[in-house]
UniProtKB/TrEMBL annotation, chains A, B, C, D:
Entry annotated with the keyword Glycoprotein: no
Protein name: MBL fold metallo-hydrolase
The keyword Transmembrane is annotated on this UniProt entry: no
Coiled coil: none
InterPro entries the UniProt entry points to: Metallo-B-lactamas (IPR001279), Mito_Persulfide_Diox (IPR051682), POD-like_MBL-fold (IPR044528), Rhodanese-like_dom (IPR001763), Rhodanese-like_dom_sf (IPR036873), RibonucZ/Hydroxyglut_hydro (IPR036866)
Keywords, in A-Z order: Hydrolase, Metal-binding
Classification via Gene3D superfamilies: Rhodanese-like domain, Ribonuclease Z/Hydroxyacylglutathione hydrolase-like
Limits of the Rhodanese domain: 263-353, 367-455
Entry's Gene Ontology molecular function annotations: hydrolase activity; metal ion binding; sulfur dioxygenase activity
GO biological process: glutathione metabolic process; hydrogen sulfide metabolic process
Source species of the chain: Massilia arenae
C-alpha cells in the first residue's frame, strides 16, 4: 500500500498520496503546484481517482482543480456550501470505497464550519481505523485555530471543535494514525509539534484538547491571538473553485541589474537570502524574507496585484521562490536577480548594510541603556516569555505600527532566532531607520545564555 | 523531530533515521552503503550519535561499522554474544537517552536469540511509548521467521517469539507506532504486508501472532518453509564485525562486447533487464535477474568469490546493480555491458531468444496436453494455491533439481507474475533446454482469468 | 563567454545559448520546450535578449514565441516572408550587436529560400569570424536537403546552396567554428557526421560541398531521396508563428490496464520500450517506437489530432516520451501505461510476442530458402549496400506498401541495427502477419560477419 | 564521436573525454575525483582505454592512477622523467591510434620541460588536424606561465615556449580546435580568456604568443609575476605517481556547534559562504573563502596536514567543499557545520560581524582622508590599474605582510569584485584588526563609476 506524506515547507502543510488498491490512489488536500503528486503517482503506478478536501483551506491555494483536469480525478468533499467546486459530496457518517479501501466521512466542525475528517480502513488492517485525515481539526500536539470564520466566536467554535474531536475522532481508537493537514510552522495552529508522526492514543495523552476540560480548552483558544495574513481572503475566494492552475508561464525572466533597478520601481523587491547576507549588503529599499519563509511572510508584503522582484542566493533557488509565492496566489513575479547581487555591485549600483548583533552584545548595550529592543514574534510567543522592557509588534503589523517606533535610538530587533527580525530590520531600514541591528540567535540564544526574561504563564 | 524510514528495495529492508533532539540522531539497522543516511543527516543538520542494531541481520550486510568510522557514531546493541562489534551494550529493560529522547531496550528473542527491540519516548509525546523498533520480531502483518538459528527448533523459537511479542511489545500500548526492520519482499518473513504504516493496536487486531493462540502460532511457524539463500552464512560472519565498508573502488569498468565475452568466461553473466527484454534477445548462457531482484536472487547465483558480469538496461542503472550485490556482500563485479546488448548484436555476436506466453495461451496448450508446467514460487505460495499437475521447484533450488525436469517436452515456467520464472527459464536455457516459455502474468493472471487451481488451506 | 550547444536527441537538433557580454545572451533555433534554455540562462546569470532563427524549421516546433513571452526576448530573423512572426528583421550582410558581440547576418538560401546564417565576432576574438550559426546550410560533413521547398527543384536548390556555402560561408575563414542546427540523426540531412565539433577549415577539406564540383554536388543532391515525414507540413504552419507554447497541462494521466485498453480503442498505442522487450511481450496492435526515436518516427504514425496512448519502460521516462511528441506538435497523449505492462499481464489481458533473430541465423535461414528479407532503411542506406534479394521499403512507407509484402512466408525485417525494424515488425504484426522476425544487429552485424552484400557506389 | 570538456570550477581546469571509435575513449588530464568521467563513459557506452597526460600538473592532483585502476585504462604520457608513473611513453612526433582515431604526440616544452601536446585526427575529419590537446602550452588568449620550473629562467623558458607554439602547434593549421588544460581562473596563466572555444586560426590573430615577436614575448613573460600557492610542491610529488585516489571515506561528519567549537581549536575554520553573509555574521577567527574559490585559496591556508573545519551555506554544498580541497590534496576535513551558523547563534555562541562598503562610499571616505585602502589582487592586476595611494599585497601573502598594515586606521580592502577581499578582511579580523571593511564590487565598480585610477601600461 503506497503511502506518502508530502510536506510543503514554509506553509507547514501536509498533503497525502494514498494508494487504495487496484492501482487507484487519492490525494488529500493538494497544494496548487501538483507536479510532485503526479510524479509519485507515476512512479508507483497509481491512477489518481479522487482529490479529497478536508476543508476550504485559507492558507494556501488548492491544486484539486488542476489535478482533476490533469488526471480525470474527481473532487470529493463534504456537503457544506463552503466547499464550492465538488464532484462527489459525502455527508457525516457516509462511507465510500476507493479500490479496496473503505473511508468514513466525519463532520468535524470547529476550525471552520465545513471541516471534514476521513477515517481510513485499508483491506488488510482489519475492522479498526488505520488512520484518519483530520484536516485542521486535530494536529500533532495542537488543534486548528478557531478564530477564522468569526473572531467573535473563537471560544464558541473551540467548544464545537472540542466536541468534534471527542465525539467523532476519539472513538476511532488509540491505534489510529493521525494524518493532519498541517505540521509545525503552519499559520493555522499556534503550537503544532515538530514531530509529524502520531496516533490518536498519543494525542489522547498529550494534546490539550484531551488533557483540558471543555471549558479550559475554550478559554485557551479564546486567549490565542494568531496573526491572520491578508492573503487568506484571496485564498477563500479561489479555493471555492478548488484552486487555479499555476500560470503556464511563470515569468522567471532574468533581469540585468540596471533593468532590475528600473522596473522594480513599479513594485517591491524581496531579497530571499539569509539575514546575514542581507545584513552584509543589500539593495536599498528591499525587503528581506528568507527563502523558506516566503509562503508565510510574502503574503504580508504583496497581494495578487503586486509586481514582485526577487533577489535569490543561487539560480537553482529561483523556481522555488516563485513557487512559494504561487502557492499563496501571488503570480506577478516580474523579474529575478540571480547571482546578481554581485553583478549589482560590480555595476557600481548602491548597496546598503545593516548591523547584526548577538544576544550577549545586545544585553551589554541594554545595560548601558542606549537601546530600544523590538520583539517581532507573535502574541503567543510574546506571552510565553519576553525580554523585560522590550517593545512588541508582530512583524506582519510592523509597517502599520511604525509611528510607535522611535527613530532616534539604536534599535535591536529580534524574534526567536533571527529570520523574522531580518524582515523587521529591512522594513525599518526602508522606512528611514538607520541605526538598526538584527539580534541573530534571537530570544533562543538570550534564554540559553541565562539573560533576564519575563515569563508569563500561557493559559 | 526528524524521522525517516529508508527503504531498500529488493531486500524489503527498512532502516530508520530518527532525530532525537539537541541536533543528535540515531540510525537503526543501517545497510552497507550508507551515503543516503549521511545525506539525510546533513540535510537536516543532524549529527549521528548512535547506530542501533536490533539483531545480527542475516539478509544484508551492516553499515554500522562504516557509519561509526565516518561520523564518530557509537554502535549500540544488546549484550548477547551474537552481537560482535558493539560500543555500547544495553540489557533487557535498560534505558538510555539520546538528546531529549528516551529509549528502553527490550530483549525480544525468537527470530534469533539476540533479537532486541527499542521502545522510543520522545520528549513531547508524553509517558506513553511513541514507537518501537522491532527488528524482525514483529512485522506489519507478520513475524520474523524462526528457523534460521536452528531449523529443528522452528516451533520452539516461535513460542519464544510469541512470548516476546506478548510480554514485551504488547504492553507498550495500542498507540505505539510499529517500526520493523523489514517490509514486503523480505526473505525474513513470508507474509509481510505491503502496507508500511501500522501501530501495535492495528497488529493486535490483525497479526497472526495476536489472533492465534500460542500453540496455533507455533504450528503455523513450524509449517512455514522459507528458502534460505546461501549468502546468509557469509552475512552472519561479516555482521559480527558490524559490516565492512563498500569497496572504495567499485569496479564498474565498461567492457566492450568482445572483451566482455572473453572475460565473462571466467565468471557468470547476470542480465538485469526485464523478463520480456531477456526473452526477446539475450547473451547465450546468461542468467536473468530483474534489477530489483538482484539483492534477493543474486545471492543464489554468486558468492563473494564469483566474478560477476552485468548486463544492464541503461547506464544509469549500473551503480544500482552493483550496489544491490554489494549489499549482500558480493563485490567482484568485473565488467558491465551498458547499453551494450545493442553493441553486442551489432558486433554480430550470438544472441538467443526465449518464448513467452500468457496464462490463457498456456491453459490452451495444457488442454492440448503438450506441456509441462513448472512452478518456481516458494513452498508457502505453492501450498496456498497452484495449477493442477504443475511441477514445483523453488527457483533457488532449480539448478540442483534439473534432473527432475524433462528435456523433451515444452516447459512453461511461471511464478506469481513473471520475474522469478524469468530467472527459471534462463537457468533452463543455459542447461540445454530449448523449448521453454515464461508465462508472463504468472499465477496472478491465471487466477484472474478463473482458470483451474488447487487451493490448499494454509494454516 | 558562456557557450552551450543544447542537443535534442531523436531530432538530431542543436540549439545554442551564447553569452554575448554585459549579461546578455542569445538562443539560436530553440525547440518548443524551453525550460532547459531558461535554466542555462539563470545558472549563468544571463538575460536572454534575442531568439535567433536561421530558417523556418520543418522538423520541430519552435520555442521562440514561448521564450519571447517568458523572457521578453525579441525574435530576430531574416527578411524573407517565410519567417512569419519576427521582431527584428536583418538583411543579408547586415550587422547587429548584442552586448559586446558583433553578428553579421548572411543570406544562405538553398536548403530553403529564407535560410540565414549568422557569423559571430566576440569582443576578444579579433577581427576574424569566431564561429558561424549555419542553420541547415552547412552541417558537419553534410549539407541540408534541398528537396523540401519543391522536390522538382532539388538540383537547382542544391546549386543555390553550393553558392551560398562558397560565397558566403567559405570567406569567413578556416578558423571559424561551425555551429549548425542539426547533427547526426536529423531528418534534414542524409549523412551528417557523428562528430559535433568542426571548423570551416575542416569542412573545406572533407565536406562534399567543398570536395565536389558544383555540378557533381547538384547531381549528388538530386540523387538523395530522403523521407519527408507527414508532420513537416504542420510544423511549417505553426513555425510561421514562431511555435506554440507546450500545453500548460500535458495530460500525463496514468491509466490502469483496463481503462487503458478501453480508451486506446479510440487512438493508437505506441510502445516505447526496446525492440527486445517489445518482441518478448507486448499489447496486441501496438506500434513499437523506441524512446529516442519518438520525435522522428512518431510523426509517421500520428498527427496533431491522433489520440496517443503510451507504454513506457519506467515512470521516469513518461515526461520525456510526452515531450518528444510535443516537440513535433503532437499533444494528444491521452494515457500512459507506466510500469504497466506488468499490471497488464497480471490482469490476464492478452499479450503477443514476436520473433527475433541474429544475422547469422537469418543468413542460415536464407540459404535454406524459406525466407523473405525486408529492409526498412531509407533509400540512401539501401543504395549504399543491401542484402541480395531483400525487399526494400522505408519503414515510414511500410503501412502503405503492405500489399507488396507476402503474408505466407517467414519475414525477417532489418534496418541498420534493429530499432526501425522493431517498428516494422510491429506494423506487420498489427496487420495480420504472424511469422515475422526482427533481425537484431541489422545490416551492421551482417556486414561485420562478412555475409554477402550488394554494394552500390553512392555518388 | 563523443566529445566533452569537463570543467572544474575554481581551478579553471579542463579535462576532456573523447570517444575514439570502436567504443574506446581517452580521458585527457583527469582530476583526482573521477566519478564524472566514469559516468560520461558509462552513459555513452565507452570503455576508457587511455588516460593521457600533457604534463605533470602542479595545480591539482591527477586522477590518472585512479582511473587506471578502476577501468583498466593505461596512462599515456611523454618520455621525460618528470612523468613518473606512465604505462605508455610516446616521444616527440610519435603517432598512436585509439579506436579509429590517430594521435600525434608533440613535445612542447616551455611551461615545463616535459610538456607534451597531442594532435588529434578522427577518422572522418580528413588529413588535417581536427583539434589539439595543448596542456599548458597554449591557452585561449594566453600561454602557460614559464616561471614554475625555475623563476630565474622565466624569460628563457618563454623563448622555449614561443618556439614550441610556433614550430609545433602553428603548423597544424588554422582549422584545428584548441583544447587546453586550463581556462579562465587558473593559477597557471595570468590572462586566459573567459571564452572556452577557439581554434589555432583565432589564436594566430589574437594571442600574444603570435602577435608579439619572440623578444617581446620573452619580455612580457619575464614581467609576469604570478603567485605560486604553497600546495604546488605537494602536487608535484603526488603527481609523479599519477595522483592518489580520493579517500574512501571522506570524513564529512556533521558536528554540533559546541563540538565544532571545541575541535576546531586544533585546526582552522574556513567559512565558505558569500562575503556578504560572512560580513553579516561569522564565527570569530574563521577564514572566509567563497565556495568556488576553495581549490585556489584553500591551498594558501592549509596543507595536507592541517585539520580543516568547514562552514557551508547549505548541506548540499558540503560534498563539493570537501571535493574542492581534495582536488588540491587537502584531505583532513574533520568537521562540517551545515546550516549550522544558525544553530551556532541559537546556542548563544559568539559571533562577529565585519563592515562592507561600496566604491562610492569608500571614495567619499577616502576624500575625507580617514582611510587606508588595501588592494589584495595579484601583481599583474595591480600593474594594470589601481587606486592611487592604495597599499598592495596579494591576498595569499597578506598574513606574512601584516606588519606593514596599520592597526589604527580604518582599512578598506578590495580586489576585483569582493571575494578575495572577503578572505583578506577575515585575515585582518582574526589578527586583531577591528575597523575593517570589504569594498563589495571592488575595483570593477570603482572603475565603472569613473573614480580616479592609476593605469600602468602592461607590456
Amino acid at each position: 500500500m503506497f503511502f506518502q506524506r508530502v510536506k510543503t515547507q514554509g506553509l507547514g502543510h501536509n498533503a497525502y498520496v494514498l494508494g487504495c488498491g487496484n492501482g487507484l490512489a487519492v490525494v488529500v488536500d493538494p497544494r496548487r503546484d501538483v507536479a510532485e503528486y503526479l510524479q509519485l503517482a507515476r512512479d508507483n503506478d497509481l491512477s489518481i481517482a479522487y482529490c479529497i478536501e478536508t476543508h476550504r483551506q485559507e492558507d494556501f491555494e488548492f491544486g484539486s482543480a488542476s489535478l482533476a483536469e490533469l488526471t480525470g480525478a474527481k473532487i470529493l468533499a463534504g456537503k457544506h456550501p463552503l466547499f464550492g467546486r465538488v464532484d462527489v459530496q459525502v455527508g457525516d457518517g457516509e462511507e465510500f470505497t476507493v479500490g479496496t479501501t473503505r473511508f468514513v466521512a466525519l463532520a468535524t466542525p470547529g476550525h471552520t464550519p465545513e471541516s471534514m475528517s476521513y477515517a481510513v480502513y485499508p483491506e488488510d488492517a482489519g475492522d479498526q481505523c488505520w488512520g484518519v485525515f483530520t484536516g485542521d481539526a486535530l494536529f500533532v500536539g495542537d488543534t486548528g485555530r478557531t478564530d477564522l470564520s468569526d473572531p467573535e466566536k473563537t471560544a464558541e467554535n473551540a467548544g464545537l471543535l472540542y466536541d468534534s474531536v471527542h465525539q467523532k475522532l476519539a472513538p476511532l481508537g488509540d491505534q489510529a494514525i493521525l494524518l493532519p493537514a498541517h505540521g509545525a510552522g503552519s499559520a493555522c495552529g499556534g503550537n503544532i509539534s515538530e514531530r509529524d508522526e502520531s496516533t490518536l492514543g498519543i494525542e489522547r495523552a498529550t494534546n490539550p484538547v484531551f488533557t483540558k476540560s471543555r471549558a479550559e480548552f475554550m478559554a485557551q483558544k479564546a486567549g490565542e491571538h494568531l496573526p491572520r495574513p491578508p492573503y487568506f481572503s484571496h485564498m477563500e475566494v479561489v479555493n471555492l473553485e478548488a484552486g487555479r492552475p499555476v500560470p503556464a508561464s511563470p515569468d522567471d525572466r532574468v533581469l540585468l541589474p540596471k533593468a532590475f533597478q528600473e522596473r522594480a520601481r513599479g513594485g517591491i523587491v524581496i531579497d530571499t537570502r539569509s539575514p546575514d547576507a542581507f545584513a552584509g549588503a543589500h539593495i536599498p529599499g528591499s525587503y528581506n524574507v528568507w527563502l523558506k519563509g516566503l509562503s508565510t511572510f510574502g503574503g504580508w508584503l504583496a497581494d495578487e496585484q503586486t509586481p514582485v522582484f526577487l533577489v535569490v542566493e543561487q539560480p537553482a533557488k529561483a523556481p522555488l521562490a516563485i513557487a512559494q509565492l504561487a502557492r499563496i496566489g501571488i503570480d506577478r513575479v516580474e523579474g529575478v536577480l540571480v547571482n546578481g547581487v554581485e553583478a549589482w555591485r560590480e555595476a557600481g549600483l548602491p548597496i546598503e548594510a545593516l548591523g547584526t548583533t548577538s544576544a550577549s552584545e545586545a544585553a551589554r548595550w541594554n545595560e548601558e541603556g542606549d537601546l530600544s529592543i523590538l520583539d517581532v514574534r507573535d502574541d503567543m510567543e510574546w506571552k510565553e516569555k519576553h525580554i523585560p522592557d522590550a517593545h512588541h509588534t508582530f512583524v506582519g503589523h510592523l509597517e502599520a505600527d511604525l509611528p510607535a517606533i522611535p527613530k532616534d535610538r539604536r534599535i535591536v530587533a529580534h524574534c526567536s532566532v533571527g529570520h523574522r527580525s531580518g524582515l523587521a530590520v529591512s522594513i525599518l531600514r526602508r522606512n528611514g531607520y538607520t541605526n538598526v541591528f538584527n539580534m541573530l540567535g534571537g530570544i533562543t540564544a538570550w534564554d540559553k545564555l541565562g539573560l533576564p526574561l519575563n515569563r508569563n504563564q500561557v493559559e
